[in-house]
Amino acid sequence: MAATRKRTRRGIEDVSDRKAKVIKSSGEKRHIAALILARGGSKGIPLKNIKMLAGVPLIGWVLRAAVDSKQFDSVWVSTDHDDIEKVAKAWGAQVHRRSPEVSKDSSSSLDTIQEFARLNPEVDVICHIQATSPCLHPFHLKEALEMITKQGFTSVLSVVRLHHFRWQEVKKGGSVATQPLNLDPCNRPRRQDWDGELCENGSFYIYTRATIERGLQGGKWAYYEMLPEYSVDIDVDIDWPVAEQRVLRFGYFGLDKPEVVRLLLCNVSGCLTDGRVLISVSGEEMVSVNTRDTMGIRMLQRERVEVILISSSEDLLTKALADNLSQRTGCEVRQLGKDIQGEVKAMMDDKDLDWKEVAYMGNDAPDVDCLNLAGLSAVPRDAPVVAINAAKYSCHSAAGLGAVREFSEHILLLKKKAKSQMEQDRIHRNTF
Predict the structure, then answer these.
(1) Neighbours of 273 (CB within 10 A)
(2) Which first-to-last residue range defines the signal peptide (predicted)?
(3) How many CA atoms lie within 13 A of 257 on its CB side?
(4) Coil, strand, or helix at residue 380?
(5) Would you call 134 exposed, middle or buried from its count of C-beta atoms within 10 A (0-12, 13-18, 19+)?
(6) Which has the closest alpha carbon to 37: 128, 134, 159?
């Protein structure tokens, strides 16, 4: 991976920054904080920062990368909205409740960063991460921060290399001819003969406290170059489904290896079915199962992922219903008591499995512990908030209407992604 990444740097240094470095030269460790700005009043997409992107709140992608990078002494979300605060805390962040003065449409990012710095005097370096950059990975943050901590730069911004020919804008109705800005039309270079231009991609900006207090003036600046596939900006990529495909291919999914998932535990009521039990005139109980969901189960089974359907003590299935479900899906159906986590753990012990090898699909408060512990976990679209906050993936589909199929495809996609990465690592080791 290192052979394919490239970064360069440039900058100027002033006297005040040399003084700041002298103050920290005693060996005292600097406090480095990650700060994500997430105001609730997005004009384009309401509450965009917590809108689900590939089953994860948008802000969750960058919070996961920041926490897993292990580079920060604290990780913060600055917001003015209660719902964003709840999501931020669920993803491991502290919350800076910003003041009304920096929550206006006219407020700049610098205004909020400076307020955060004033209220947190122990922080020496702030890494401002944009919530709209879901393809950020921990290694990006680690390498960029080393430019501050080891190479002496006071500001680092992320950039991407673009090969776009630019022309001067001409207002409509004017008679002025446009002019090329970065090319000679008579000698138009081929892509392979032109290095392109470096442009901000908006993923992150890292500043020392002195730089922030000066209003980002002066200092020793550098840039960190990211590859185009990681440079996804939701502010620009307004087509959400297109952005989701990019994230599913190039996003960061956490420290655990998804290829080790060997078992899916799926609730019958509220996941495989919509939770209703239909009773015929003769008293016979019936449930409705979507063929898309049963196909998803069989897709997992073909990839040697065992699927067990579970039912709680509050949703008792008759033996006839359980037998019919087992026959239709090819899965074992198990009845669990009130201690769901304990019984699931006993089941895992019998199969010699760890939590990271288990995927769990639940739909309500009794499932929260298992949703938190499982290596992969999901809830249907119509699950209550308490379950959504505990799950690692939230389906677009509702219970009984394709949610199980969607989660099955998600599991298989992550397994494929992980296997591809393992193959790349193997090639890299053999080559170098």
Answers:
(1) 22
(2) none
(3) 9
(4) coil
(5) buried
(6) 128
Rounded Cα distance between 177 and 420, Å, is 50
Residue 64 makes CB contacts below 8 A (sequence gap 6+) with: 56, 91, 252, 254
Token pair in block for residue 363: 């739909």
The contacts found for 165-174 with CB under 8 angstroms, 24 or more apart, are none
Biggest alpha carbon–alpha carbon distance for the chain: 89
- Quick check: 151 and 51 in contact, CB under 8 A? no
C-alpha 237/C-alpha 240 separation (Å) is: 7
Residues annotated as part of the active site: 188
What does R_g of the chain's alpha carbons equal in angstroms? 26
CB-based contact 68:60 (threshold 8 Å): no
**227 to 120, 176, 235, 314: CA distances (angstroms):** 33, 37, 18, 51
The one-digit pLDDT tens for each residue of the chain (432 residues) are 333 343 443 444 444 444 444 345 445 789 999 999 998 876 667 788 998 888 889 999 999 999 999 999 999 999 999 999 999 998 999 999 999 888 888 889 999 999 999 999 999 999 999 999 999 999 999 999 999 999 999 999 999 999 899 999 888 877 788 999 988 888 888 888 888 899 999 999 999 999 999 999 888 999 999 999 999 887 654 577 788 888 888 889 887 655 578 999 999 888 998 877 777 777 777 778 888 999 999 999 998 999 999 887 666 666 777 888 888 888 988 888 888 999 999 999 999 998 888 999 999 999 999 999 998 899 999 899 889 888 888 898 999 899 999 999 988 888 877 666 555 544 444 444
Residue 67 backbone phi and psi in degrees, to 5: -65, -45
DSSP state string for 112-160: HHHHHHHH-TT--EEEEE-TT-TT--HHHHHHHHHHHHTT--SEEEEEE
Half-sphere exposure of 325 (CA within 13 A, CB side): 30
The backbone region for 196, taken as left when phi is positive above 0, alpha when psi lies in -120 to 50, beta otherwise, is left
